[in-house]
Amino acid sequence: MQETSTSADAGIPLFERAHARAGDKGNTLNISVFVFDPQDYDWLVRELTETRIRERFAARRPKAVHRYLLPRLGGMNIVLEEVLEGGVNASAALDRHGKTLGYHLLGMTLPRH
After folding, report:
1. Where are the domains of the chain?
2. Which region holds residue 110: left if phi is over 0, alpha if psi is between -120 and 50, else beta?
3. What's the pTM?
4. N or C: more exposed end of the chain, with fewer CB within 10 A?
5. What DSSP designation does 17 have?
6. In which region does residue 6 sit, left (phi positive, over 0), alpha (psi from -120 to 50) or beta (all else)?
C-alpha cells in the first residue's frame, strides 16, 4: 500500500506565522518579515533561507539575495538586488515599488519544523 502525504506533511504557509512589509530603493527590493509569535523566530531563520527566497523570486532573476537577521525584533530584512525591472523611474510595471512582493513571499509554504 502506497503511503500518502497528510496535511501535517504539507508544510505551513508563511503568512500563518509571519507578516511582511515591502519597499524599494531603486532597483532593489526590501522585504521585512516578522513572526507573530516570538517562539517561531528560530523556525523562520531555519526555514526562510536565502536559497528558498531566491527560488521563490527566480522569475525576477535576482542578482543577489541577502538576509539580515533581527533576533531582538523577531524578524529579518531581506534584500533582493535588481528585481524591480530598473526601479520606479525606469519600469512600466504595475507595481514598480514592489509592494505586492511581500505577499508573494508570504505565500510560500515552508516545512513545519
Report:
1. 13-110
2. beta
3. 0.85
4. N
5. T
6. beta
